[in-house]
Each structure stands twice: as C-alpha cells, then as structure tokens.
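Raw record, unedited: SusC/RagA family TonB-linked outer membrane protein
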Amino acid sequence: MKKLLNKIRFDKPFLKFDLKMKLTTLFLFTALTIMHAGTTYSQKAKISFSANNMTVAKAIEKLEYTTNYRFVYNVRSVDLNRIITINESNVAIETLLNTIFGNTGTDYKVSGNHIVLMARKAPAEKATVKAEADFIVKGRVTDEKGMPLVGAAISDNGSGRGVQTDFNGEYQIITVGSETTLAFAYLGYVRQEIKVEGRSVINVVLKEDVLELEGIVLKTGYQEITAEKATGSFSSLKAKDFQEQRLNSLDKILEGRIVGYQDGKIRGTTSMTGVSAPLYVIDGFPVENTKLTPYASIEENLPNLNLEDIETITVLKDAAASSIYGARAANGVVVITTKKAKAGKTNISFSSNLTVTPYRNYTGNLTSSADIIGLEKGWADGNPNLKTANANTYAQSLLNNAVFTSLGMQTILNGYAGNISQAEMNGRLDQLGSQGYKYYDDVARYAKRDQYFMQHNLSLGKATESNSFNASLTYKDNQLEDIYSENETVGLNLKNSTQINSWLSLDLGTYVNYGRGDTQSYNPINTSTGIFNAGYKHQPYNQLVNNDGTNFVSTPESRYNAFTLNSLKNYGLYDMNITPMDELGRNLIESKNFLNRTYAKFNVKFSHAFTYDAMFQYEFGSDRANQLFDKDSYYVRSKVNGMVTLANNRAVYNLPYGDIVKNTEQITNAYNFRQQLNFNQTFNDKHDVSAIAGMEIRHTKLQFNTNTRYGYDAQTLGFATVNQTDLLKVYGSIFSGYMIQDEFSLEKELLNRYVSVYGTGGYTYDKKYSVSGSLRWDRSNLWGTDSEYQNKPTWSAGAAWNIDKESFFTASWIDALKVRASYGIGGNIAKDSAPYLTAYYNSNPNVGGNQGTVRSRPNPELSWEKTTTTNIGLDFSFFKNRLGGTLDLYNKKGENLLASSQGIPTEGWGYSTYKINNGEMTNKGIEVSLRGTIVKTPSFSWDAAVLYANNKNNVDYVNVKAPVYYLQIDQAQSFPRVGTNFNSIYGYKWAGLSATGIPQVYDASGAAVKYNPGQLEAIEDYGSTVPIHSGSFHTSANYKNFSLSALFIYELGHKVRNTFLPMLSNNYNGAAGGYVTDITVVNNHIADRWMQPGDEAFTNVPRAVYEYDPEFNSDSRTIYSYVDINILDASNLRLSNISLAYQMPKDLIKRAKLDGVRFNLNAENVYTFAKSRDAKFLLGGFTSPSFVLGVNVNF
C-alpha cells in the first residue's frame, strides 16, 4: 500500500501555500507560543483587596472576578453571610485568606489557582477527650479514571460531622467510632455509603451519575445550561457512553443511543425537497459537509472529525432547544464538544483497534447454475422454431447474430445447429449445471477479500492554572473489499485555551485531516450498463480462472455478430477481448483529500455576570480524484473503437488511443463569525437570570469541476488535444459510439451566505420554575430579496416545573420530577434553490457555440421553510437515581415547504414541474427513554436502557399531481399525495395469476387485468418506507474488572419494495430486431413458478415467458414489479453490537507507571431478524459481522 509520504502525481500541486495557508500556519504558531507564554498565577503573586461591610459570599465573588483564583467549598463549611471589612495591599494570597478566615471555623488550602475551603479541624487536645470513642479515618476520593475529586463531601452518619476533600482529593475525618458509616458525595456522581469496620484508610472511587438532572450540563453551541433549568427537549451522551464500541462513524454512535434519531434524521422527515439532515455543531461552530455531485445534486455528509476527541454530544430536538439556529433548526441540531484537559498531571492516552470484516457474497437467494441451465433448457423445449425442419438454420442464425451470448445458450444453439452432437450438448449442459455458484466463488477468491480496518489514536492533555492544551493524532489504514482498493487518513487536532488575565481568555484550535486512497472501479459482478460493468454476460457457471490456471477470456466471437466481427478484422480495430482478471488492475481511482478548520475565540469578562464572546472559524477543504483508465483496459479499447467512423472504406480514429484520465476537484471555502453578549446572575439565591444577544455571519462556497483528458501519458503527463466540438457531432459507424459534454469538462458552483441576529433569555425561580425564550432573524441569498421574505423571525418559548423541589412534595423514592413544555418556530433551507433564474451552459454540437438550459425559473417569493413545533415533556429519576428517563410528546407542523408544483404550459414548462414554497406536512410523535440500574453490589452491576420513538408523518397540502402512473410509483416523493405519509410506497393490488400463469392486477374499476392499467386511480398507498416505530435496548453487566454489553436496535411498521424478483426480464436486442428474454440470475423462488394449469392456486410466481410466447410482453414484468405482494414488511431487529471489555487492575499497571489499561473485543452487525428472507436481504441482513480487537492505555 502506498503510504501518505509517497506522492501521487497530479497535473498541478495538491497543496499550494497561498495566503490562507500562510495565515493558518501563523495561527498555529501563535497558538503554541501562547500556550507556553500565557500568564500564570501562583502563590507568589501579590494581591491588593478591600472590602467594606461585605459578606464573605460577595468577597469570594469579587476575588474570583479580580483574580484568577477559583474557590471550592461546601456552603455548610463556610459562613457566607458573615460581614467583613478589610483593606490589604500587595500581600500574598495566604495573608489575605488568613485575614478573612483566621479565627473562624473555616480552614483553607491553596493549590495552584484553586482555593479549597473546609471546616477547620478540631484542636488535638479536644480530640483526646473522647479518645476511647473517636476514630480518625483518612483517604482519597477519585473518579473512575483516578482523577481527584476536589471538594467531595464526606460525612459521618453517626455524628453528623462533615469534611471536604482538598485539591488532591484527600480527606481526614474524626468519626464517633470505628464501626460507623461514612457517606461520600459529589455533584454528578453516585453517592456511596461505606462502613468503616475499623479501617483507618478508606480510598473511594465515585462513579458518574448519568440520571441526576442537576449534574447534567446541556451545551447548545451558544450557551451551557443545566438540565434542571432546561425547558426544551434534549438528549445527551458522554464519551464513556460509547467507549465500548469502535468509533468509526458518528451516525453509529447516535443510532440506538439517541431516542428519535433514525437513519440520519431527528424526529422524522420535515422537508420535501430541502435539507433533511440535522445541523452539526462542533465546539460552537456549525459545520456543514456539503458536496456537489456530477449529477446536478447536493449531498449532505456527516462532519469530519476525530471521534476519539468527542467529550459530549447534545442533540437539540424541539424549538426551545434548537430555534436559536434559525433557518437551519427545523431538522434538529447535533452539538459536539471535544475534550479539554483537566488540571493536574499531563494526560496521555493511546488507543488502537483492528477490525476484520470477512467477505461474504450471499447466494442463498440466487438462482444456481442448475437453475439457470433449467431455464435455458426451458427456452429450447418450448421454442416452436426448434421443432421444425429449419431448426438448424434458425439456431445458426441466432449464433451468427450473437442474440444469446451465455455459455449455456450457445451450447444449446450449437447442438441444434448441428455443430456438436446432442450427446455432447447434454454433457456440456450437465457439466455447467453442476457448477453451483462457481462464478461467485471465483469473484470471492480473486477479486474480493476480507476487509481490515486499523485505527490508532494518540492524545495528550495538559492544564495549568491559566492554560489548557490538547493534542490528538489519529491514523487510519483500511484494506477494502475490492482488490486494489484501500485508503488511509491522518488527522491532527490542536486546542489551546489561555487565561491571559483575570478578564480575558483566548481559545485557539485547528483540525487538519489528510487522506489518500485507491478504488477499484471494475466490478466483475455488475452486469448493468455503464463504465463499471463486467462488459460481458456471465452466469453462475462461468469462471474467472480456467481449470488449467489460465485467465478466462470473453472473446468478441462470443459477444458480437458476424458483421461486427468482420469490421473488427477488416478495419484493424483494437481487439475487444475482455479478461476480467486483467481488468481488475486497469481501472483505478486515486483520490486525495485535505481539510482544515481553524478557529479563534475571545472571552471578555466585564463582571461576574456580564461577558462578551467573539469567535471566528475558517474552513478549507479540497477533494481531488484521478480516475485512470489504462490504455490496455477494455473501457479504453471499446471507447476508441466506438468513436471510429468510416471514410473511403478506411477506419477514422476520432478519439486518440492512450490512457484516459478524468480529474475531479471540489474546493470548499467557508467562514463563520459570531459575537455575543452573555448575562448570567443569581439574585438572593433564588432568582437565576440568563440571557445572550449576538450576531452571526456565515459564508460557504463550493466549487466543483471535472476535466477528462484523452491520449494521456502518465510518465510525461502529456495528453492529446481533441476537438470537442467535432467529437460531439461524431456517431460511430461500427459500435454506434457518441460523446456528451460531461465527458470533457463540467463546472459547478454553490454559494450560500447568511447574516443573523439573535437573542435568548431564561429565568429560574428557586430552582423550581423556569421560563425561556429565543428570537432570531436570518437573511440569506437563498431567499427572495423582498423584506417580506427575508425578515421572518424564528422564535421559541418554553417553561419547566421541577416538582420535586416543592415543599409539599414528600415522596422520598422520587429523586427528580420535572414537567416542561415548549412552542416555537424553526426554519429550513434548500441549498440548491435561488430566487433568480438558474441555468447551465454547454456546447451545442449542431450549430456551434454555447447553449443554455433553464434549470429553475425565477422565484422572487422564495422563502425558507417554516416548522412550528409543540413539545410537552417529562423528566424523572427514582429510587436514588437507580431508574430514570424522559417522556416527550411533539407535533411538528411544516409550512412553506419547498415542493414540486405543477408546470404552467404558457410559461414553457408544460409537462414539467418546478420548485416553490408549495407544501405543508405534519410529524407527530412520542419518545420514551428509560435508563436504570437493575442490580448493584460492590463487585457486580447490571444496567439497562430502553428507547422507543413513534413518528407519524402526513402530507397536509401540495399542489402537484403525477402526470403518469410510473412517476407516482418510481418518484413518489416528487409527487406526494395529500393525506398520506410523505415516504409512502405505492403499487397495484394483486389479483393473482391467470389461468396461464401471467401476473394480474386490479384496475381502477376493480377488474383483474393482465396488462398495465396505467391508471393513477388504480395505484394504492401501502405504507411508509420509513419506520413508524424505532428504538433500542442496551444492557451492560460489570463484574469486577470485566464488562459485557449488547445493543439491540429495532425498526417496525415500514415497508420495502422487493426489487430482486423471481421473474425473467426482457431486453432489447438489436441483432434480433426486438425484445428477447434475458435469462440471467434472479430470485431463486423462480423454482416455485407456475408450471401447469391449476398452479395459480398454489403460487404467486409467474411462469417463465420467452420471446416466442404469444403472451410475451413488457407489461407482465412491470406490473409484477409494482404489485403489493412484492411490497414487504421491513420490520426488523438487529443485534448491532456486543462488547466484552477487561480493565487491568491498577495495582498491576502501576508498576509500569500506567493509569489505566482496557482491552475490548467487539462484534458489530452481529445478526438481523426480519419477517422474510427477501426482506432481510434487501435490508442488508446477510452482510458479514465485523470483529474488533482494541486496547486503550492511559499514562
């Protein structure tokens, strides 16, 4: 495999150090410089401080504002209402603290810029008064990673005495005796009670409590709020929630762990033609991985980031949570924050995993060699032309014209033509029929392979009193399924946060990702048209390698008629042999991609309550690919031969012979600037007020271009000059080849700009009642210029009630109970829509010059899509946080949705449609999330989580109707029906097989017909292609250092069309002058086909109809494809992941100076349960599971 340091030759430099790159380099250098040069507070710093009749609480607040020190204390250990008057100038921090807390019941300890306040220990002489009863216990309190918990509370249940841990997590407490019980508590962690039992040293490890609302911080990208104050619908994950699985895809992290997230969408489909994916936000900045395709469409991809760096994921679902994002809020928002170093020693971690996915080509539903030979024999047995005296002439004619090119059919025709004996024919057919799935076995052996994915991640974190630095490096090396296909990427993430002084902080960060890959584009299994097909007819009995070890060759004689063969010979054209084993290395795509996101954030602290943020992010992405067709490849030879014309009885080569290379490039430039004012203040310990107000500018530009060069020489980088205008007029004389504009060059550009102002506000009274609101205006070049369409605000309002905080609430078994409700408006866009006329241009080969084609008519009334969301929710936690969860009911009403509208003939649109704000749609649903600890002992615990989501979609209005039946079925989402699910699947009602084994459906009048009714009224809605019910079940068991977990994901109530049918199709054959039956691999249920009158009572599989049959027509295949019996129940249950982990004991790894070592063994995509074999196949249920071996080491 080529490594990243090797160079791949392109026609121009891959990276060019322009101004943007130079600025990025300077930015990185500055970040690293600041990391080392940041201002550092220490115990030697001198402080001036004065307070006049001020409470201790206000003095602490003033100290935190005017210095870089932060206080940690328990309110029971400090008299915050004590009045002090002091005036100190240029003194050490210890002197100042002694002035404030000397001769009081509060003691202090200074560590770095942290000050821990604790209850002052009793004098030694008093401790001896009750020496017989009192007992001293000391120890250390840490989290599961061994990090000290500063300020953890330790209390003696016997005496009520309490202390707190210091900066090192250490404590010492005098108990009433050696048999008392100590309670250990820390916000956001599970409280523990431990019996002393005569021990003088007790070290405690507290586990995070994911169910305690007060300990959960929700991050929206604009602000952070605690779960107890939130009025919106949120779901959140922490890194430890998905540490058991391989981190290879963001959607795999979210699937099964976020209720309501299904198939890349949140709470269903909210747009008809616009963006349907949620908005992704990384460290406060929206990140949109949008790509243009050569087919005039837009792809929304998951954001590129190092998944190992993720600290938290917060999913914003309703208007109160997400409407702050304005015109991109309707589909929900996924907010990702990356890891930040914690104070203490340098944290270094390394993880590595190897994933193996065995290759599997499922053949359990395919016709075998014996089945194919049976069908081919059936063609001969029923063919009346082979029962006449002219049978040999008829058979020879079919051979000469290459009407049938499979080995079995040619064997049969040679037998009937007299070229071989009947015995020899039957012997060959028997031999072919005995081959099973030989061709697929050869493909697996020679063209495919097991997949291997290797990933290594190294991260480093260091935090001091005034600086925090993080760095991570990720390397991935993947061997893909197709031979010669592989890729590798390297990603670097740098973050630095510096507290420059007491009122100013600066965050700098950059993410760089570089990758390269090779892709094998020749597919020996694909028989479809196009440049990636096998190029010849193959059956299960064919081979890639002959029995004597030589490579199989598909010769022109087996594929072309006599005229073509004579032309190849007489005009000296390039040979048309196809050797699949050689083709595998002649059609490669080399790709390179580069991405950089660099940001800067400033925070100015005007006071304890008022702060100002200014932040800027710049993104640059480059994706380049070279698709090289070797001159010896069949594609090049057939392309050159196809463009040959005849002049004076000689061949004219209009296209030069040589390599063909197609260069594709996509460049992304984007920037985002935001500034906002923040206010957060608590008055009288009861009135909590927060607000933000800001403005934002975002600019995104995508540029896409392709350029194809002919007669290319990879050594000299030279290529032949071709006359594009002339070539567009050429029509090949022998192989009827021609070219289109896209085979030379193509350019596209997409430019989106936004300017926004916004604000939010929240108020909480006494931690019981919360209200919130938000307002945002967006202006964009995507909408009409009239202010009526630009100045449409998005807004939200929400309220919440923490019932458990009420004095009348006395249910001790309920830890938290909150009711919340919200209402608001979010927006959505279609990035490829514009208020002005859009067109594309290309050369006109007939008259010369350029011609323009209108892509969309001008639409000055274009506006963003509006979605109004109502949400009612309940959050709860029971039995000391052993059981908790959420319940949400929502209604999402979409209006002004961009949808197809009926064309206006007088405007030149006629039969066509165009896109305007023309649709309304509703999504109603319920979401339930339950998480709990079933069993918990000192050495064993069993946790489980159940998620359930229900979503019902309905199209309320759209002004469009399918003009013909097949558009209603094949393009249902372009022509949705009012009153149905937008994702509906349509078809005809099955009327059974006729007495002759032909498919029948009911027409609009209810009559059974064997032909295609072609009536819209006969087409019915058979349900949704998107699950109505979805969710998951996750369970994990932990015993000492071992943990075992499993994730099940279920989807119910949806349908899938069976596209792999037990029926032969028809193909047009030029040599035959009409349609002939295509005997090829189909669903092996064809063995159950109708064979004789009366079978229609027992089977729904049509008989095999050949081209000579009076009932041969294309309608039979069409209506059988569209009929309701081939619309299958797609409900399924998947065992998505099983994980076994082992955490090495700390006393063993300490000898190697390690903090933690964890081994993981995973199985992914383990098994799929579905209602039928065909449904399971269509859902990908027969793909191989993946096996992962991983290790994680913390230093």
